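Researcher: Let's do a round of design. I'm pasting the structure tokens now; please hold your answer until I've finished.
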């Protein structure tokens, strides 16, 4: 009779691992402070979370997603059961991963418009949202191997990571997984130039990929044409925060679907890059001006009002710089075949008699 065991492969040095653990704890602590502010000092919490952290995130995803994948506070929380030896370490099938990706994509498109309805004005609601995701993530961590169920599955941010992180500057060491257990194939963290359609294993993967690639640019455009809703008293007002973003999503998704059918196979990656650049450029086209008082709706998303001291032409300069950068980085720049993080050594199977 035999059983299967795994030998540990090459790992980070103890010194490097200690440094990463310190950084992870520091970022987790910052996240805990933000959460505390959201719950008890909502004005400060909303400012820190929605108007500082979130506007920075897309740029990080484009340039150095591996850093975020190593230190994300929700990921650190999700992986606690695995690091403490409490996880059942189950593996998900390709179909299950695909289903989780579809749910994550729908969750993204449901949650983001609710910013206008609830989250942009309520620190308590935002805090409850974060706590709920942390509870779901750590619960999944008790059952499933490494980052498969939450970080690479159900997390609503993950679809955006796969779209924007297709041509990162450089790979980071893997500060989470001690050995590669092949828990997700292909692994989004360790697959060079990954994109939402890197896996065609099931129809669910294809559906989530098409929705996020094609739909996100229009969804972002629509989102910035909806004001924060101060009097959410009926379903009509709730519908109003979804209407324009969903229409935008549908239009660009249809455009992408038809272009995808027309372009040759060797050009499909470039098409994905074009839509990724369009999405992130659209985000900063509207978000940066709104941070400094030049938004379409003056009080929405304001960080500091510089509209009386900053010349109006600087808005055009900001838009030209960000749009040019993202199209260069994602479309013109040659893919460098870098994954987000360096894959750790594969776990080796040995048979014990």
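Researcher: That's everything. Go ahead.
Model: Designed sequence:
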């Amino acid at each position: 009779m035999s059983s299967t065991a795994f030998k540990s492969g090459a790992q980070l040095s103890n010194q490097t691992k200690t440094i990463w653990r310190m950084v992870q704890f520091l970022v987790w602590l910052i996240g805990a402070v933000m959460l505390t502010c959201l719950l008890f000092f909502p004005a400060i919490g909303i400012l820190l979370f929605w108007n500082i952290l979130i506007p920075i995130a897309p740029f990080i995803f484009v340039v150095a997603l591996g850093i975020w994948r190593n230190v994300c506070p929700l990921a650190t929380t999700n992986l606690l059961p695995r690091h403490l030896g409490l996880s059942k370490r189950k593996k998900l099938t390709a179909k299950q991963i695909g289903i989780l990706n579809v749910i994550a994509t729908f969750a993204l498109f449901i949650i983001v418009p609710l910013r206008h309805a609830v989250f942009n004005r309520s620190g308590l609601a935002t805090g409850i949202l974060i706590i709920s995701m942390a509870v779901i993530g750590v619960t999944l961590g008790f059952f499933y191997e490494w980052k498969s169920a939450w970080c690479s599955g159900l997390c609503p941010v993950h679809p955006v990571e796969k779209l924007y992180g297709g041509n990162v500057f450089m790979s980071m060491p893997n500060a989470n997984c001690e050995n590669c257990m092949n828990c997700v194939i292909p692994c989004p963290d360790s697959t060079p130039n990954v994109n939402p359609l890197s896996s065609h294993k099931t129809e669910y993967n294809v559906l989530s990929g098409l929705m996020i690639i094609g739909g996100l640019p229009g969804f972002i455009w629509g989102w910035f044409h909806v004001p924060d809703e101060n009097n959410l008293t009926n379903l009509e007002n709730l519908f109003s925060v979804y209407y324009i973003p969903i229409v935008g999503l549908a239009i660009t998704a249809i455009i992408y679907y038809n272009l995808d059918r027309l372009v040759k196979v060797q050009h499909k990656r470039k098409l994905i890059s074009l839509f990724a650049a369009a999405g992130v450029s659209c985000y900063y086209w509207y978000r940066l001006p709104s941070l400094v008082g030049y938004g379409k709706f003056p009080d929405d998303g304001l960080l500091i009002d510089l509209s009386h001291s900053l010349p109006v032409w600087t808005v055009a300069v900001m838009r030209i710089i960000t749009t040019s950068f993202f199209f260069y980085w994602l479309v013109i720049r040659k893919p460098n075949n870098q994954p987000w993080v360096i894959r750790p050594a594969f776990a080796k199977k040995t048979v014990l008699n």
